[in-house]
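Dear colleague,

Following up on Tuesday's group meeting, I ran the structure prediction for the two-component complex that the binding team flagged. I've pasted the input sequences exactly as they went in, so you can double-check that nothing got truncated or mislabelled along the way. The structure tokens for the whole assembly follow below. Feel free to forward this to whoever is handling the docking comparison.

Inputs:
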Amino acid sequence: MKVTNDMIANQFNELADLLEIDGANPFRIRAYRTAARNIGSLGKPVEEMIKQGQDLTDIPGIGSDLAQKIQEIVKTGRLALLKGTATKFPKQLTELMKLSGLGPKRVKMLHDKLGIKSLAQLKKAIAKGELKKLRGFGETLIAKVQEAVEHREEYKKTTKLTDTELTADQLLAHLKASKAIKDVAVAGSFRRRKEVVGDLDILVSATNAKNAIEQFIKFPLVKTVTARGTTRAAVRLASGLQVDLRVVPKKSFGAALLYFTGSKAHNIALRRRAVEKHLKLNEYGLFEGKSSIAGATEKQVYRALGLPYIEPELREDRGEIEIALHKNLPKLIELDDIRGDLHTHTSETDGTESLEAMAKAAASLGYEYVAITDHSKHLTVTNGLNEKRLRKQIEAIDRLNLRLKGITVLKSIELDILEDGTLDLDDSVLKELDLTVCSIHSRFNLPEKKQTERIIRAMDNRYFNILAHPTGRLVNLRPAYQVDIERIMKAAVERGCYLEINGQPERLDLDDIHCQMAKDLGLKLAISTDAHSSTHFAYMKYGIYQARRGFLEKADVINTRTLSQLRKLLKR
DNA sequence: GCCGTTTTCGGCCCGACTGTTTTCAGTCG
């Protein structure tokens, strides 16, 4: 059986949960969680590393013990220790820890005193009023737990970044309307531009914290207030989204923004660095003894820690601090660096607007070029183009280019990669195009080796330029198909092909980890929107976010080039 | 259980809020 990094990470996390309930050494628990996180975001399958004889202790947070445990999981599929510990406490108990208000101590008490082992048993015990007998369980807490049990599935899911943007904008406008509030920022995973966010974290500086919190709670979409203190409050919106507010004085805004932006792992790494320098970092500032030496801006705090400013997208504790120390931080790509979109559709297939409308919309964004990439004939549900219709479109584009000023429309197509690795239109028409975008739209369930070789065979065709949405995943909806993405990237480098970062919010494919992998392999990428209407051109920014999270710079992306430079890159 | 520009042993980030408690443990981020 194939053992994925996620499977290993899950087992470590599960073990950490059980150890926590057991009251084990908290630092041992943290070691498991750190290991789980680092394995989960590794990009390269650990199974492969073992096969190639690589040293697993090179992975941060993995020592000799955990390296051995990883070996064990890869070999047997399962960690024996997890089985041993799991018999002491039933596995389902870890589910209870996910409920708001229940941590390891209370879950242990539920188990030891009431024999509760599952969500269903907990529900029953609440109904019978058994929880009241327990020390520390008052009326309010029981009500909170009951609420959590009932709404678990509704609340636990994450929200796509794009779905929170409108709420964030409305909330910011609402907060800025208050005279008490000075600075406002959305922090958290939203600011780090993660593809999904669990909640919104809002930070404000205010002359009067009480007024600021009152204004926050008055936001019209608030359904319930779940916490309310003198500097902090939390609400649940009607949509189910949780929003946290933190109020700090202006002189602490930078330190608080740093703290509230996270990630947690990045914060811990920074605080550790502060401790090494005999300083203390918290959300109010960086302190030497009692006196604050930085705090108004993030830049100040980083500088006082001997570091350059680190962009929010990089703050995942994936080596950015080490890289910053060596002054090797990338100058991350920006939206303005993009000169054109290389993946768009028209009403000839499944888009909603005409060729001319799409071209003009691209021109209005200041783009130098735009590629029209309608679907090809194999994708019949979209009325895909056959050779004849594609030739007609080529002629139409030639005519359009004579009329348009300031932008060049590139003749292209989104080809289907068939199961045998051939492309579904004849070379005789492909040679008339400026570029091709190629993708998988069928047979998602092939075994990894077959799927990988299918794609690489397609790349052998000299007219193959860009592999679109390379893993086929849909955020929160569908996992990637089984494919050896590293092998595909290497094959692309050898053949002069490129991979795409698809900016559609439900795709974001390649993801951040794969972007970083591409960069490490020297593979350049295209960032495209896969626009099916002119409004979709705006998805470019989501592609940029992924690219930034993957450490990409302008030079790593082909559609930052001028048209003539791009043409050279596309020549095979 | 990891890790080392003081260290192979002894550290390991830090504070707010809640609810229940009579001074703080548990949870959360």
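Chain A has 24 helices and 18 strands.

Cheers,
M.
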